[in-house]
């Protein structure tokens, strides 16, 4: 049945904020995560209305916690998606860990398959530049500016952009509105 909590070990919103406080997540990263959660839950609710079997609490928790170790990885160079997933596993949240682990790279599922929570969190993160909701094009231009320090990095980001556009088509094919609707959330937040 669509839009039911399927997993018993998903932290509620207040526990997500506790986890962020316990891990000393800086305020600007918390604001980014909140904006990603806004986009992700909006999409998940809309997809649930058209019959996608999603766990809304898992989408929200994954979005809120996706960058829980990013501030540390900026110093260590470690992959923050994987370090955050390890932390969440250790805390007893394996499903949230699965979603968070995929927020940097999450290829779209096969055509016709159910949308997965990690696809939504990944896509929502690619629509938020710092704390502003933007188009995919704007977000990837920013990523190239910040992380495209080599030819191989630029090629990888171009490939990721193309995969993300495929995912965008997959998500919005099922919805009665297009990707531009997400930009309206910026005005309402």
Summarize this structure briefly:
With 189 residues, the protein is mostly helical. The protein contains 10 helices and 2 strands; from the N terminus they run H-H-H-H-H-H-H-E-E-H-H-H.
What are the SSEs and their pairings?
Blueprint: H1 13-22, H2 27-49, H3 56-65, H4 70-76, H5 80-90, H6 94-101, H7 117-125, E1 128-129, E2 132-133, H8 136-147, H9 151-173, H10 184-188
Antiparallel strand pairs: 1-2
Helix pairs in contact: 1-3, 2-3, 2-7, 3-6, 3-7, 4-5, 5-6, 8-9
Task: Write structural notes for this entry.
- The protein is mainly alpha-helical.
- It has a single domain (13-188), classed as Orthogonal Bundle (Hypothetical protein af1432).
- 62% of the residues lie in helices and 2% in strands.
- A hairpin with a 2-residue loop joins strand 1 (128-129) and strand 2.
- The radius of gyration is 16 Å and the shape is globular.
- It starts with 12 loop residues before the first helix and ends with a helix.
CATH topology: Hypothetical protein af1432
Rounded mean pLDDT is 94
Q: How many domains make up the coordinates?
A: 1
The low-pLDDT segments are none
Just name the CATH architecture: Orthogonal Bundle
User: What overall form do the CA principal axes indicate?
Assistant: globular
What is the N-to-C succession of helices and strands?
A: HHHHHHHEEHHH
Structural class estimated from helices and strands: mainly alpha
Distance between the termini: 30 Å
Strand arrangement within the widest β-sheet reads: 1-2
Oligomeric status: single chain
Radius of gyration: 16 Å
What is the percent of helical residues?
A: 55-70%
Question: What is the makeup of the main sheet?
Answer: 2 strands, antiparallel
The CATH class: Mainly Alpha
Please report the number of helical segments.
10
Strand content: under 5%
What's the total count of β strands?
2
């Amino acid at each position: 049945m669509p839009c039911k909590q399927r997993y018993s070990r998903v932290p509620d919103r207040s526990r997500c904020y506790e986890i962020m406080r316990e891990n000393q997540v800086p305020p600007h990263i918390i604001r980014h995560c909140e904006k990603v959660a806004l986009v992700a839950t909006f999409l998940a609710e809309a997809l649930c209305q058209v019959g996608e079997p999603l766990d809304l609490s898992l989408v929200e928790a994954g979005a809120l916690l996706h960058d829980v170790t990013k501030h540390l990885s900026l110093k260590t160079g470690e992959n923050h998606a994987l370090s955050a997933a390890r932390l969440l596993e250790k805390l007893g949240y394996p499903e949230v860990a699965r979603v968070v682990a995929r927020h940097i790279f999450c290829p779209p599922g096969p055509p016709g398959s159910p949308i997965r929570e990690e696809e939504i969190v990944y896509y929502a993160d690619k629509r938020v530049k710092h704390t502003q909701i933007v188009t995919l094009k704007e977000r990837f231009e920013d990523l190239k500016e910040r992380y495209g320090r080599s030819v191989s990095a630029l090629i990888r980001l171009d490939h990721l952009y193309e995969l993300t556009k495929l995912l965008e088509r997959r998500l919005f094919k099922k919805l009665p509105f297009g990707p531009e609707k997400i930009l309206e959330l910026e005005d309402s937040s």
